[in-house]
Amino acid sequence: MQSRKTLKFLVLSVLIVFIFTGWIGVQQTYAQDATQVDTVIVSLPATPINLKEVKKSMPYPLAWQTNGIKGKVIVKVLVGEDGTPVKHEIVKSAHKKLTESVEKSLYNLKFNPAYDQANVPIKMWVTIPIDFNPTY
Fold first, then answer.
1. Residue 62 has what pLDDT?
2. Are 38 and 29 in contact (CB under 8 A)?
3. CB 3.0-4.6 Å disulfide test: which of 42, 43, 62, 132 passes with 27?
4. How much is the pLDDT for 13?
5. Which CATH number is 2-132 given?
6. E strands along the chain, which residues?
7. All residues at 6 or more sequence positions from 109 whose CB lies less than 8 Å from its CB, including other chains
8. What is the pLDDT of residue 38?
9. What is the CA radius of gyration of the chain?
10. Strand, helix or coil at 40?
11. What is the sign of the dihedral through the CA atoms of 60, 133, 22 and 28?
């Protein structure tokens, strides 16, 4: 009984690792009204190319920096077939000022586009956490 639970845990762990490393990917595509349209197996997920540079260029409120205030914004970005951001949704934000900072710089991001199993570029949602930390 214990070995069966261990085996299930091991199989699930390996599957999760494959999904997060991009070896196996599942992408859900949504229409304008956010209803599910299709599910696609992704062979290569979209990945940001210049995320570090764009994060450094994001304005960080000076008063927050000097007082050591930290914050995080989590943003979902729809990456187009050409690797450019098409639209975004703020998932979570510590403060309105940080959200504004992210939204000002977000469309400077460039991505390697996602590819389906037929090696055709596809649109894909990518979730990016952006930390604002006074040590930057």
1. 82
2. yes
3. 42
4. 59
5. 3.30.2420.10
6. 25-30, 36-44, 47-48, 71-79, 85-93, 111-112, 114-116, 121-122, 124-132
7. 48, 49, 50, 51, 54, 77, 85
8. 54
9. 18
10. strand
11. negative
Averaged in consecutive runs of 10 residues, what is the pLDDT profile of the chain (136 residues)?
64 53 45 50 78 86 82 93 94 91 92 88 92 76
SS3 86: strand
| Residue 22 exposure: Cα atoms within 13 Å on the Cβ side | 12
- Check if the beta carbon of residue 115 is closer than 8 Å to that of residue 121: yes
Residue 113, both tokens: 């586009």
Name the token pair of 88. 């975004």
The residue ranges of every structural domain in the chain are: 2-132
Residue 18 phi, psi dihedral angles, 5° rounding: -60, -40
With a CB cutoff of 8 Å and minimum separation 6, the contacts of 104 are 58, 59
Say what the pTM is.
Answer: 0.65
Structure tokens at 10: 């091991």
CA angle at residue 103 from 36 to 22, to 5 degrees?
Answer: 50
